Amino acid sequence: MADNKSQSIIIKKIKKSGHASHGGAWKIAYADFVTAMMAFFLLLWLLNSVTQEQLEGISNYFAPVSVASSESGSGDILAGATMTEEGVAKSSTFKDSVVVNLPPPKAGTGGEEASGEAEPTEEELEEERQQAVEQDQMEKAKEELEKNIAETPQLKDMEDSMLIDVTPEGLRIQLLDKDGLAMFKSGSAEMLPHAQRLIQLVSKVIAKMPQQISISGHTDSQRFITDSGYSNWELSADRANAARREIVHSKVPFERVSRVVGKAATEPLLPEDPKNARNRRLSIILLRGTGKDHPAAKKDVKKKPKKKNKKAATGLPGLDNINKRQETEGLKKAAPKPTLNKPRTAIKKQPVPQTIKIEEEVDPALPGLEPLRKRRSNKGWRNPKS
After folding, report:
1. What's the domain range around 135?
2. SS3 for 111?
3. What's the pLDDT tens digit per position in 329-352?
4. What are phi and psi of 164, to 5 degrees?
5. Is residue 310 one of the residues assigned to a domain?
6. Which residue in 197, 194, 190 sits closest to 178, CA to CA?
């Protein structure tokens, strides 16, 4: 009966559930951290690559602008004050602000050294000193020329015909034409007497200066050309060369003239009026930096080789060097040891012993004895007595 009963079958199903989800919030936080680090290093790179002027411009761009006249409180219209019935009153705790101008930040270059800028070298100091001396010389020469022109009655009318100024190129002296008083004949390089006296007066001052001289001739824009092709270019060059001859004739060394050029009408004194007579002029320039005491001129001076004193050889090797060293130290020279001429002792040669040859006498009385003796001598036997 029991076998016939049906057995119930129980099936158990096990559901496997996964782990609880942690979410993706950490990924967002990590991404924000990486982005912030990238922005930070990018900012450091930008600060190191820009210049100080650019940093100051950026700082000024983002600087807040205050509407109130006083820098205090909230910076609003009332500037930290209180509105009352009587007007605007400041609180008891209100204090005027103090604005301190701090130096701009140093970034990108590592800042300046604590000791400040590097000290100038001796050559730079010497060059600055020479430039100051040269500037003073040119100023004094300018005053002397103006004084001589004013004190010379013959050149009273030509006081306006000279312009003297100190330029970056050097001391420039310009001799100008004016209406009714020209320095040269029209279309010619022949100098008139009053122009010669003016150049002679200028040459007296130039002779006292150490600088090299540059002379240039200028004309106006009036077209001038002859049948042979002679134009303002040749005319300006010839007039500059005529001024050079007059300067050299006035006891200025010809070696000091370094440049003579003709510029025609390319550099007018009055650009707005190119045909004006004052554009016809001579320009004499004492070139800056070419004086005898200037470092640039000293470089061109070649050092003379030192003469070597030839001394007689003492006969002993190394003694010359010892004498030179003793001369510098103030010691006496080491005198060479005298060589004593000792008499040479003649070596007697020992006499060489002479070899005595003993000739054996042959007894003619015994025939056949000689061959017997030779045979015995060859065998080492003693010779028999005769």
Report:
1. 127-293
2. coil
3. 665 554 555 555 555 665 655 665
4. -125, 125
5. no
6. 194
Q: Is residue 242 part of a domain?
A: yes
pLDDT band at 386 (very low <50, low <70, confident <90, very high): very low
Under the phi-then-psi rule, with left for phi > 0, alpha for psi from -120 to 50, and beta for the rest, what region is 70?
A: beta
Q: What radius of gyration, in Å, describes the C-alpha atoms of the chain?
A: 57
pLDDT tens figures, 290-329 = 876 544 445 444 444 444 444 444 455 566 777 777 776 6
186-209: pLDDT as tens digits: 889 999 998 999 999 999 999 988
Percent of the chain with pLDDT over 70: 62
Strand pairing of 170-176 and 162-167? Answer: antiparallel
333 within a domain of the structure (yes/no): no
Residue the block writes with tokens 């983002």: 62
**Higher-scoring residue by pLDDT: 124, 98:** 124
Domain-embedded: residue 113 = no
Q: Which residues contact 294 (CB under 8 A, 6 or more apart)?
A: 130, 134
In angstroms, the CA 263 to CA 220 distance is 10
Structural domain count of the chain? 1
Stated pTM of the model: 0.47
- What is the DSSP annotation of 339-371? PP-PPPPPPPPPPPPPPPPPPPPP-TTSTTHHH
CATH number of residue 135's parent domain: 3.30.1330.60
Q: Which two tokens stand for residue 326?
A: 């003793």
What would the two tokens of residue 252 be?
A: 């200025």
C-alpha torsion 272→278→283→285, nearest 10: -70
218 forms beta bridges with 281
Tokens 């930096």: give the residue.
Answer: 289
